[in-house]
Design a protein that fits this description.
6-stranded mixed sheet, Pept_HybD-like_dom_sf, 155 residues, single chain, alpha/beta, Rossmann fold, Hydrogenase maturation protease, Peptidase_A31, aspartyl protease, 34% helix, 26% strand
């Protein structure tokens, strides 16, 4: 059983790389995958996210979302906040909340899920992520790393 799984969800289209950039920043900071921790980039997993939640105590998800706020704004959502998360436009057809909601109905959610979104500007194929998205990914990676260290030291 993996104790923690961290997934950066996205694609190679412009700012939609936000989740992937966060994963890159975590790995560059020295977080390592092992039996207790999985760190992975996912390309718009849809319902395929559900089996990745199995046998895990804590899942951290980072996703890009177009909303009404400024590009680079970071938000954290607990299960009670999921309805607010859906007010933005997911860049994925069957989105993260859809998969998590289905997993909840199937009784397959881990005991802890931290869902982060980074608001994005454009998600055009072939574009690089904007500077604000790259900075947000670095900032979020630092926050996630600090939370992991604090939580795992208490365990």
């Amino acid at each position: 059983m993996s104790r923690v799984r961290i997934f950066g969800i996205g694609s190679s289209s412009g700012d939609d790389q936000a989740g992937w950039l966060t994963i890159d920043a975590l790995l560059a900071a020295g977080l390592q995958c092992d039996d207790a921790m999985v760190i992975e980039k996912l390309d718009r997993p849809g319902a395929n996210l559900i089996p990745l939640l199995d046998n895990t105590a804590w899942v951290i998800l980072v996703d890009a979302m177009q909303g009404s706020g400024p590009a680079g704004r970071i938000q954290r959502f607990d299960q009670k906040d999921w309805p607010r998360y859906t007010k933005g436009l997911s860049t994925h057809g069957f989105g993260v909340i859809d998969a998590l909601s289905l997993a909840r109905e199937l009784g397959r959610l881990p005991s802890r899920i931290d869902l982060y979104r980074i608001e994005i500007g454009s998600a055009n194929p072939g574009e690089q992520a904007g500077d604000d998205i790259q900075a947000a990914a670095q900032q979020l990676a630092r926050c996630i790393a600090a939370d992991l260290i604090a939580t795992l030291l208490q365990a």
